[in-house]
Specification:
The protein has 439 residues and is an alpha/beta fold. 39% of the residues lie in helices and 20% in strands. The structure holds adenosine-5'-diphosphate and magnesium ion.
Length: 439
């Protein structure tokens, strides 16, 4: 017997893919670096990474919408150049045409395939039926709910009977219950073999969703995006979120995602604290959420130490948002993250018990010692005779090292934190930074 009979066929293969974009200020921004992955027939694979890590860029390359800067993607053994007939994509929200009915919107998916009208109608009706929209064929998008509109989007992708379905955060714009119903329906169809597709790639930033739906999970890092871990999900279907095995795997993935690069981890969560450059990307986190998280961990039932997944549930936060706040606490040395737990440091405990004036002082000290960009802004303002500098002075500097978007977020965070700490002031109208209390 040959080896190949025991392995499912490869559907798509990504080899050494690299993607960079030119920066407005010159030079380039590397979004994807040495990305490798293989999807086989019969599997649902999750691509789990934080926002801005390059997941959508990778999907666009796999769908043939973008040519990568380097490396290649092979669909059923053939290099992808341009959209492939066997690949369909599902987006976070669909642009349905408001003047077309559900049936007409779904049939649109077949336009490019030049299928005879009667056959096209039959396939569209089947797809609508499959996805649970039977009876809504003649409804217009404005007459149906957001969850139903997303179902129409799925039907539009399935109607072409693609071999590969790429899903880009397809549940993240829906409310909790609608999202869970749609997930369960899709999983049922998949398990019953009723989906006219061979394999699915699910992009998500939701750990539980990945564990619920996927056969294996690829953990994606940020800056640049790269696959840093592969985690098989050996839990029988249908899966129950409350099962011990399920909870344990969610915990394990939280742990992997919060492991810093300096510990040999995937760095998908916490920034590399060994870096001390002013061009380190800062997460968009408000001082209110910083104080809120410190207070929550300090209080009962945690008393200074909390399990991240439990905390996320408790605070109704997505993993993505919680990571951002948690990594800020770590950056400011208000907390340590280890093994999927977050633990307040001595300073964190003290902060929780102080009034707002002491909090501001503590914050200022930490900002100037642990956030090089904040210290840099302060130094520039100190040195200028008027103690003022325009926003653009710093934005341009950051744009040499990161995307325009990241530069804006990073500078915004530094400014908001600095304002709270009364280290510097910012005049929104004139886009001008100044020292709060010039001495
Ligand atoms: P994700 O889907 O993981 O949130 P994206 O793939 O959308 O991430 O974006 C990753 C990074 O690439 C972002 O910093 C984004 O600003 C940048 N980016 C994406 N497309 C372009 C483009 N066409 N030109 C310049 N930068 C881009
Ligand atoms: Mg995206």
């Amino acid at each position: 017997m040959s080896m190949t009979t025991e392995q499912s066929k490869t559907v798509i293969e990504v080899r050494k893919v690299r993607q960079s974009f030119p920066r407005p200020s010159g030079g380039e921004l590397t979004v994807l670096e040495d990305v490798n992955m293989t999807l086989r027939e019969g599997e649902i694979v999750g691509l789990l990474g934080r926002s801005g890590s390059g997941k959508s860029t990778l999907l666009r390359i796999m769908a043939g919408l973008v040519e990568p800067t380097g490396g290649s993607a092979l669909f059923q053994g053939q290099p992808i150049h341009g959209p492939a007939a066997g690949i369909a994509m599902v987006f976070q929200t669909f642009a349905l045409f408001p003047w077309l009915t559900v049936l007409q919107n779904v049939s649109l998916g077949l336009d490019a395939l030049k299928i005879p009208e009667a056959e096209a109608r039959k396939r569209a009706l089947e797809a609508i039926d499959l996805i649970g929209m039977d009876g809504f064929e003649s409804a217009y998008p404005k007459e149906i709910s957001g969850g139903m509109r997303q179902r129409v989007g799925f039907a539009r992708a399935l109607v072409v009977h693609p071999d590969l379905l790429l899903m880009d955060e397809p549940f993240s714009a829906l409310d909790v219950l609608t999202a869970e119903t749609l997930r369960t329906d899709l999983l049922d169809l998949w398990s019953e073999g009723r989906m006219p597709i061979k394999s699915i790639l699910l992009v998500t930033h939701n750990i539980e969703e990945a564990v619920l739906m996927c056969d294996r999970i690829l953990v994606f890092s940020s800056n640049p995006g790269r696959v840093v871990a592969e985690i098989p999900v050996d839990i029988p279907r249908p899966r129950n979120r409350l099962d011990t095995k399920f909870r344990r795997l969610v915990d394990h993935i939280y742990e992997r995602m919060t492991m810093p690069a300096s510990a040999g981890g995937p760095q998908a969560g916490v920034p590399d604290l060994s870096g001390d450059s002013i061009t380190k990307v800062l997460p968009r986190v408000s001082t209110n959420s910083i104080a809120g998280l410190i207070e929550a961990i300090a209080g009962a039932p945690y008393n200074g130490r909390a399990d991240l997944p439990v905390l996320a549930d408790d605070m109704h936060m997505s993993a993505d948002v919680l990571f951002s706040v948690a990594e800020t606490l770590q950056l400011l040395r208000f907390a340590d993250i280890e093994g999927g737990d977050i633990r307040l440091t001595e300073a964190g405990r003290r902060f929780a018990n102080e009034d707002v004036n002491v909090r501001k002082q503590m914050f200022a000290e930490r900002l100037l010692s642990h956030v090089p960009l904040a210290a840099h802004i302060k130094r520039v303002l100190d040195e200028r005779p008027e103690h003022r500098a325009p926003y653009s002075r710093f934005a341009e500097e950051l744009e040499d090292a990161m995307s325009e978007e990241q530069a804006e977020e990073t500078l915004r965070s530094a400014i908001n934190w600095g304002r709270f700490a009364e280290v510097f002031a910012y005049d929104e109208n004139r886009a001008m930074l100044s020292l709060d209390n010039p001495s």
